[in-house]
Write a structure and sequence with these properties.
Structural class of chain B: alpha+beta
Number of domains of chain B: 2
Oligomer: heterodimer
Number of strands of chain B: 14
CATH architecture of the largest domain in chain A: 2-Layer Sandwich
Strand content of chain B: 25-35%
Number of domains of chain A: 3
CATH architecture of the largest domain in chain B: 2-Layer Sandwich
Order of helices and strands of chain B: EHEEEEHHHHHHEEEEEEEEEHHH
Structural class of chain A: alpha+beta
Radius of gyration of chain B: 19 Å
CATH topology of the largest domain in chain A: Aldehyde Oxidoreductase, domain 4
Number of helices of chain A: 20
Number of strands of chain A: 31
Chain lengths: ~775, ~280
């Protein structure tokens, strides 16, 4: 039985169908589940090594300063402690990402508070902290530009533009022209496990770096570049991360260099584990954004022109900002059709922490903006929020601003229609609108509202990223007859440890426990690319399945020849079958191993030829496909305190093929809650370059008691373009809930908040601005 | 750091008399959070957790006596408290989160003396009295006189808070408590308000209002009370209460909220609570 052919049948019968949540056989338990739940799994900080030293980091107290002099005074440090400054580096002082402009240690000057200036190592974490007093740094503070407005126009890292149709002409066709400026805040990842990394030198002089990360080969590359060591002499091992959300995409390369430098200087193993405070102070955040929209619509509310201007605060160094900006411009017009578009995006330098990868990668910011803009347009035209979306929604065959023509799997309308059916949104929205204008606060002192959002997320790497990566995976037969799946993908909670075996088992006709997932260790696994961009289930799993299939094919052929059956040999549910003959696969595979050794198959991912993108003109296929979603959020607002309680979010997501329904729902629930937190309370506040709330006592995120009822509806629209047919699900839900929640607040109160988070304090400012204080007087 | 674990109140007071620098510890929920304000740098700890005589809730004549080591979970579960002190139950259920409530004690919340302590405005509005014990003897003071400045208290050297005493409220007193935080649990309050009010035949007979997080200490709003008692309970009186109340507080801008929001929400809550007290008198 081939599950793929089953899926294909379903598609031809039903078009898009809903997956059945109750099919437990499609959701086997993850192998690391018990160890994680019981606390026995070893994380990066758990293993103690013989002779291990501990590192500590001296950080800049200034947002911008020249370093006049820097010294290490060993006499002031605990005995045996060592200290390193930028001048002690022998290779390039840069972390290789897109370029190597991000310093490992600040040299002539510092460009943000918390920037690493010196490193110390000593026999305990406390002694290492004490050793920081032995650094003597003389700073000359310089004027700091800490907001994007101050950075413009001169300090632009990257600028991108997409032109489509004729915007000026589009505005001449408009019956209404609507403008809006939408802002979002710096968000902290709050992965449960803080950053931690350990380095040591093996007996064969290999540098080993082990720790919590999403991208082992990024780390290897950064180490190899800055330490001028061939990649073969740099071994990077990813321990199971306690969460990542993108926060372990770029920063681990810097921390790996810090521990490696200390290990090389001391010839001892060295570990640095941040506590929460240092982690929040030092590591990247979600880019704050300001997005300006100018939109033209005809009298029916159909878009004639969209002019979008995106500003991202990149922080002090470029790091991954150009790629984040790229995804932002490519999602700027949302899931809507518009013939005339101009999108400009700029990422600017400020003297603040470098911002980096975070679930959604630039898309949540622009989707918040475009979704709230659509609501504003709907009010201008005089139609409801569902109607404006239905009139402009992308359909198969429509063209994106890049010129990409959307394929049959474009399911935005299906998501909208389904979320309306699930929630009765339109009727409830209209009822709340009517009540709001006639009743001043109901008897129990609260008022409710609903909001809707429509969103999409481009699947996999942007543009030619996958082509450049040439992801490599390997399947290898083990002596116990199981097949090891070798990839550099890291399971940070999303579930690749079970999804990879599931996909391979499906493809081969085996069981999930016929497979073993290799530990992501650069000395043992090929470079299947970073664990980012919701690409693992889609692309890496697809190649893994093919590699495993190929190995099974070899075993089946050899067995067929050996038994010399007239019938063709095949593999089904763990059994080799040929005519009346059958034998357990595992047994045969063990014999195969004894006879032929550890056969292995390596595959390199090649994107389809039609995935052509011109990175100069931004024309072409930016993503092979798009996942879609529509959310309806319901909130209750207290008229006395303007506190917003998110009551419910219904998320309808179309993610291609659903590989593991339970984990897939888990991704959507988690991403939705993360978006609700970003909408209502999460903000890493920065004043004059200093983070104000750099602890979890002051940076608040939702607790379980703040969690709305989240209803997830999965739509499957199997798609055969690339890999497994999954469209990627990790980031999609981050794009939907925030605009829906803020729209629901507007429906409940009449207050349209243009800046996240939509705190009671911001609602009060808006209330006073609109002079609506009477409207929420208690009755 | 050394830790003493006395087994009786007598022994604890003796220990404290001999070393005034000992830091008394009950539920440890603030102490376990590292930071300057919490005393994690103390020389020595006086662990009170074995003093079972300071646990429990009982009536003594017309006073409810709550042992200082009684946890918020125990307070919220007490029939006596539920029957007579609904505002205290409300506050007890909003301290920290569920886990905190099973360890944190009422005495600890008072001694910690944070202006944001969730139970404190309720105790002010309930006219609580504190029993303070030292090796030399026992004294009682009105709780209103306990907080003398930002994290400064009337507790003398060698003294422990041993009991919190609440006078039995008149039967038709309406009690309310409202905590405003950024989230539903584990939030330090932006502001908190407690009101005990009695309305008879449409006239406000008794009105005791207190607030937290709106100044350096929790405060009792005596001027509002004087302005409201004896007046007809209506929306005009509620407006007046709210208006005067906002002049008695000293809210600040900080990482949790803004002064203007605190002032606005406080006025709204005072107004709403006053109207609710009136409405409940009509039902009662």
């Amino acid at each position: 039985m081939n599950p793929r052919s089953q899926t294909a049948r379903a598609r031809s019968d039903l078009g898009t169908r809903e997956s059945e949540a109750a099919r437990d056989d499609r959701s086997p338990a993850r192998p690391d589940g018990f160890a994680k739940a019981s606390g026995s799994l070893a994380y990066a900080d758990d293993a103690r090594l013989e002779g291990m030293l501990f590192g500590a980091t001296l950080r800049s107290p200034h947002p911008h300063a020249r370093i006049r002099s820097a010294h290490w005074r060993p006499e002031r440090a605990p005995a045996g402690a060592i200290g390193l400054l930028a001048r002690d580096l022998t290779g390039p002082n840069g972390v290789q990402l897109l370029d190597d402009a991000w310093p490992i240690l600040a040299g002539d000057g510092v460009h943000h508070v918390g920037e690493a200036v010196g490193l110390a190592a000593a026999t305990s974490p406390e002694a290492a902290q004490a050793a920081l007093a032995a650094f003597e740094i003389e700073y000359e503070p310089l004027p700091a530009r800490t907001t994007p407005a101050e950075a413009l126009p001169s300090d632009v890292f990257t600028e991108l533009e997409i032109l489509h149709g004729d915007v000026a002409h589009g505005f001449t066709q408009a019956a209404h022209i609507v403008e809006g400026t939408w802002r979002t805040a710096r968000q902290e990842h709050v992965y449960i496990e803080c950053q931690s990394m350990t380095a040591w030198i093996d007996t064969d002089d290999t540098l080993v770096v082990q720790g919590s990360m999403q991208c082992p080969y990024y780390v290897q590359n950064a180490l190899s570049h800055a330490l001028k060591r061939p990649a073969q002499r740099v071994r990077v091992v990813a321990t199971p991360p306690g969460g990542g959300f993108g926060g372990k995409e770029d920063y681990p390369s810097l921390l790996a260099l810090h521990v490696a430098l200390l290990a090389l200087a001391t010839r001892h193993p060295v570990r640095i584990s941040y506590d929460r405070h240092e982690d929040m102070l030092a590591t990247s955040k979600r880019h704050p954004s300001e997005v300006h929209h100018r939109s033209g619509v005809d009298s029916d509310g159909r878009l004639t022109a969209m002019d979008v201007d995106i500003l991202l605060d990149a922080g002090a160094y470029r790091t991954l900002s150009p790629v984040v900006l790229s995804r932002a411009v490519l999602h700027a017009t949302g899931a809507y059709r518009c013939p005339n578009v101009r999108i400009r995006g700029r990422a600017v330098r400020t003297h603040t922490l470098p911002n980096g990868a975070f679930r959604g990668f630039g898309a949540p910011q622009v989707l918040f903006a475009v979704e709230r803009q659509m609501d504003r347009i709907a009010r201008a035209v005089g139609i409801d929020p569902l109607e404006i979306r239905l009139r402009n929604v992308l359909e198969p065959g429509d063209e994106l601003p890049t010129g990409q023509v959307l394929d049959d799997s474009t399911s935005a309308r299906l998501c909208l229609e389904r979320v309306e059916r699930e929630t009765d949104f339109r009727r409830r929205w209209r009822e709340h609108e009517r009540q709001r204008s006639t009743i001043s606060g109901d008897a129990n002192g609260s008022r409710k509202g609903v909001g809707i959002s429509l969103y999409l997320h481009g699947s996999g790497f942007t543009g030619n990223g996958e082509k450049r990566l040439a992801s490599t995976v390997r399947a290898r037969l083990r002596s116990d007859g199981r097949i090891e799946l070798q990839t550099a993908s890291v399971d940070m909670g999303q579930g690749s440890c079970i999804v990879l075996p599931m996909v391979a088992a499906d493809a081969c006709g085996l069981h999930v426990d016929d497979f073993v997932v290799a530990e992501p260790d650069t000395s043992r696994v090929p470079d299947s690319g970073p664990t980012v961009a919701s690409r693992t289930s889609m692309i890496v799993a697809g190649e893994v399945a093919l590699a495993a299939q190929e190995i099974c094919g070899q075993i089946v052929d050899a067995w067929g020849k050996r038994i010399d059956s007239a019938e063709e040999a095949r593999l089904e549910a763990g059994e080799l079958l040929a005519g009346s003959r059958s034998e357990a696969f595992r047994q045969v595979a063990r014999c195969h191993y004894l006879e032929y050794g550890a056969s292995e198959v390596t595959r390199v991912h090649t994107p389809p030829a039609w995935q052509e993108f011109d990175e100069e003109s931004y024309r072409g296929v930016a993503y092979p496909t798009y996942a879609f979603g529509a959310d309806v959020a319901e909130v209750e607002v207290d008229p006395d305190t303007l506190q917003v309680r998110p009551l419910a979010v219904t998320a309808v997501c179309e993610v291609g093929r659903v590989l593991h329904p339970v984990l897939c729902r888990g991704q959507i629930e988690g991403g939705t809650l993360q978006a609700v937190g970003w909408a209502l309370m999460e903000e890493a506040q920065c004043r004059e370059g200093h983070l104000v709330n750099d602890r979890l006592a002051t940076y608040l995120l939702p607790t379980v008691q703040d969690c709305p009822e989240i209803q997830v509806v999965l739509l499957e629209h199997p798609w055969n373009g690339v890999g497994t047919g999954a469209k990627g699900v990790g980031e999609l839900p981050m794009n939907g809930a925030a605009p829906a929640v803020v729209a629901a607040i507007e429906n409940a109160t009449g207050l349209a908040i243009a800046e996240l988070p939509a705190t009671p304090e911001r609602l009060l400012v808006e209330l006073e601005r609109q002079g609506l204080a009477d409207r929420t007087q208690p009755s | 750091m050394h830790v003493l674990r006395p087994r009786s109140l007598h022994a604890a007071l003796e220990d404290l008399a001999s070393d005034a620098r000992l830091r008394p510890m009950a539920g440890c929920t603030d102490f376990m959070v590292p930071g300057a304000a919490t005393g994690a740098d103390s020389d020595g700890i006086l662990d009170l957790s074995l003093l079972s005589e300071l646990r429990g809730i009982r009536w003594n004549d017309d006073w409810l006596e709550i042992g200082a080591l009684t946890t918020f979970a125990e307070i919220a579960a007490s029939n006596f408290v539920q029957e007579h002190f609904s505002a205290l139950v409300e506050a007890a259920r909003q301290v920290g989160g569920w886990q905190i409530q099973t360890r944190a004690t009422l005495g600890g919340n008072i001694a910690n003396a944070s202006p944001a302590g969730d139970s404190l405005p309720v105790l002010l509005a309930l006219d609580a009295e504190l029993e303070l014990s030292a090796a030399g003897g026992v004294r009682r003071i009105p709780y209103e006189r306990f907080h003398v400045g930002y994290r400064e208290t009337a507790l003398g050297a060698g003294e422990l808070i041993t009991r919190i005493r609440l006078p039995r409220p008149a039967p038709n007193v309406h009690q309310s408590f409202r905590k405003v935080g950024t989230r539903e649990a584990q939030a330090i309050s932006k502001l908190s308000v407690a009101l005990c009010a009695r309305v008879d035949d449409g006239i406000v007979r008794d009105y005791r209002l207190a607030a937290g997080s709106l100044g350096p200490t929790p405060i009792r709003l005596r001027e509002v009370e004087r302005a409201v008692v004896g007046r007809t309970a209506n929306s005009e009186t509620a407006d007046r209460a709210a208006e005067i109340a906002t002049h008695q507080i000293h809210p600040i801008d900080d990482v949790r909220s803004s002064a203007s929001y605190r002032r606005w929400a406080f006025a709204r809550i005072v107004r709403r609570m006053t109207l609710d007290a009136y409405a409940s008198s009509l039902q009662g």
